[in-house]
Design brief:
615 residues; alpha/beta; Chitobiase, domain 2; Alpha-d-glucuronidase, C-terminal Domain; 16 helices; binds 4-O-methyl-alpha-D-glucopyranuronic acid
């Protein structure tokens, strides 16, 4: 391991932190002494006020800084104070409190040390079938999470492989308890993904949620688990999804399934996070009636109001699966009597795999135009962390972890301000270079979008790995992910006259998406089947727009590469970012050529500008 392991938004986090700090207040004292020494500020007095919970207030009294705050609030206040010092910005005025009480990081880490959709190396805490970690890195992780304001870490993959079932069994509990203890001083509570069928490993003949023996198994297990980890946040469940077991096997609803587990953990104050990622992953591509984006709404909207109080339904932000651009999931707008969590993905599965740049705050902020932040009561994000020295693979991918924390604390935060703050805290570049870096991050999503799948079409990625172009890679598959491109047109008609998907939206959104004239260009092919000669609002035909976007996307990526070369970044970040940018350029050109050639061959339409398209 290198001496300087990570360069985070707080420049002194590379320093070691002692093992004997027990409470967030202990950590706050340590951080303030170290940070103020490094950053050159007055060490504030800490005034704990348990009633303040996660809130804090930084103020001046008799010319001296004071931080008051609750148990974790005081630590958040300490980080906020030092961020302000490091960024040379004003200290936030008044009492600061998080918008969302649950700010979760879902880790798809497997007990064998691999990470599903992980692009930053192996797991930081699993190896060889169970917990195994480097205490120094886990304390660093704790500081990173706390300084981002994340308060729940789900330790294992939602696809619970047999080894991971052991985490909540007697032999696994000491490991879970030790890991919980390691992160407790940072105000981070653990959560565990569990398999719905787990009782059947223990001689219970069924996992039917209405079966008394299955119910008792879960209640007894919960007693044992919470005895070992009294502050465990809860269980997370992926049921009846992508071959995971669930209540459908027994003809039961997802409310019956979730409530059974919720009742087992309720006496311990546990929360049951139930994922809404349910769809038919064995679809016949010839079936043009089933429309995958409609699945979650069809399953869950009729169950609104039927979940117990400690159940939170966790819904991905779009109706598909973290594609480059999707409309808001209609399920999130259809369940006023159900507690909802919004699920985001920091791991860049479909968005460049931490090779291509893709900063996410602008996307989350735009989501807020259709999804008022109050509509959900919690947020979760699939982690982008791993064992790489810099934790996130691409050194700039840390912006998404930091930005997620900022968003979870205040979903109305200005994305440009978040990106600038991260850039300033991490690199302290001269102003012109800082502007260049922020500009690059702000544009990164649009650039990526332009050179990949056009205009909301989705799923043109290589199957399985999900990196690189393959326009028909998912076309004749089981996953319900079709573009139905032919020589005249592309896209699926999801209007009332088509699959009817648009009818799942409330009136205003339905009207916006229903007509190609009012549907935003960027989502045109998500909602409509459009002829290549369709004239778009800007006067260009659809086919010309596809060509133009792909050429422009590559040009913009080339401009980003030039801008990156002009940044005086410290090593190893400079070399690492340059290496990845080279790969991004290769990827962008590949996407441009494959997608343009695909549509050129199908449509036979020439590019008006006569640029090179391969036949
Ligand atoms: C953890 C997609 C991903 C899977 C992931 C799944 C999910 O299908 O490709 O790797 O499984 O989403 O969110 O459960």
């Amino acid at each position: 391991m290198n001496d300087i392991i990570c360069r985070t938004w707080l420049p002194y986090l590379d320093a070691d932190i002692p093992v004997d700090l027990i409470t967030p207040a202990d950590v706050a004292v340590f951080e303030l002494e170290l940070g103020c020494d490094r950053l050159g500020g007055a060490i504030p007095e800490l005034r704990p006020d348990p009633a303040m919970g996660e809130s804090y207030h930084i103020f001046t009294e008799n010319g001296k800084p004071v931080i008051s705050g609750g148990r974790t609030g005081i630590l958040y206040g300490a980080y906020a104070y030092m961020e302000s010092l490091a960024a040379g910005e004003a200290i936030p005025a008044g009492v600061q409190q998080p918008f969302y009480k649950l700010r979760m990081l879902d880790c798809w880490d497997n007990a064998d040390g691999s990470v599903e959709r992980g692009y930053s190396g192996r797991s930081l805490w699993f190896e060889g079938g169970g917990f195994q970690w480097d205490p120094r890195r886990i304390r660093q992780l704790g500081r990173i999470l706390a300084s981002a304001g994340i308060n729940v870490l789900c330790v294992n993959n939602v696809n619970v492989h047999p080894e991971a079932e052991g985490l909540i069994e007697d032999a696994g509990l000491p490991g879970l308890a030790a890991f919980a203890e390691a992160l407790r001083p940072f105000g981070v509570r653990l959560m565990v993904s569990v398999s719905f069928a787990q009782p059947m490993r223990h001689g219970i003949p069924t996992a039917d949620p209405l079966d008394a023996a299955a119910q008792k198994w879960w209640a007894d297990r919960a007693d044992a688990v919470w005895k070992a980890v009294p502050d465990l946040a809860g269980f997370l469940v992926k049921a009846d999804s992508e071959h995971n077991p669930g209540p459908f096997t027994y003809g039961r609803s997802h409310a019956e399934g979730a409530n059974m587990l919720a009742r087992a953990i309720a006496p311990h104050g546990g929360v049951l996070i139930w994922r809404a990622f349910v769809y038919n992953c064995m679809q016949d591509w010839r079936d043009t009636v089933t429309d995958r984006p409609m699945a979650a709404f069809n399953t869950y909207a009729p169950l609104d109001g039927r979940f117990d109080d400690n159940v939170i339904l966790q819904v991905k932000h779009g109706p598909f699966d973290f594609q480059v651009r999707e409309p808001v999931s209609p399920t999130l707008l259809a369940m006023p009597h159900t507690k909802l969590a919004l699920e985001l993905q920091l791991a860049q599965e479909y968005t460049g795999q931490q090779v291509d740049l893709y900063a996410m705050n602008p996307m989350w902020r735009a989501l807020g135009e259709d999804l008022p932040p109050e509509q959900v009561m919690a947020v979760a994000a699939v982690s982008n962390l791993g064992r790489d020295d810099n934790f996130t693979g691409h050194p700039f991918a840390a912006v998404n972890l930091y930005g997620y924390g900022q968003y979870a604390w205040n979903p109305r935060v200005d994305p440009a301000a978040v990106l600038r703050r991260w850039a300033r805290l991490t690199y302290a570049l001269p102003r012109g270079q800082e502007d260049a870096l922020v500009g690059m991050l702000l544009d990164s999503r649009t650039v990526y979008e332009k050179y990949t799948a056009p205009l909301g079409l989705c799923w043109m990625v290589n199957p399985g790995g999900h990196y690189g172009p393959s326009p028909w890679g998912y076309e004749f598959s089981l996953w319900g992910t079709y573009n139905r491109a032919d020589r005249n047109a592309v896209g699926i008609d999801r209007t009332a006259g088509g699959t009817g998907y648009v009818l799942q939206y409330p009136e205003a959104l339905r009207r916006k998406y229903e007509s190609p004239d009012t549907c935003p260009d960027k989502l045109l092919l998500f909602f409509h089947r459009v002829r290549y000669d369709h004239v778009m609002a800007d006067g260009r035909t659809l086919i010309q727009r596809i060509y133009d976007d792909h050429f422009e996307g590559v040009e913009a990526a080339e401009a980003m590469a030039a801008a990156l070369a002009g940044l005086d970044l410290p090593e190893p970040d400079r070399s690492e970012a340059a290496r990845r940018m080279e790969a991004q350029l290769k990827n962008a050109r590949e996407w441009r050529d494959v997608v343009n050639t695909f549509f050129h061959r199908l449509s036979g339409a020439a590019d008006e500008k006569g640029r090179r398209i391969y036949d």
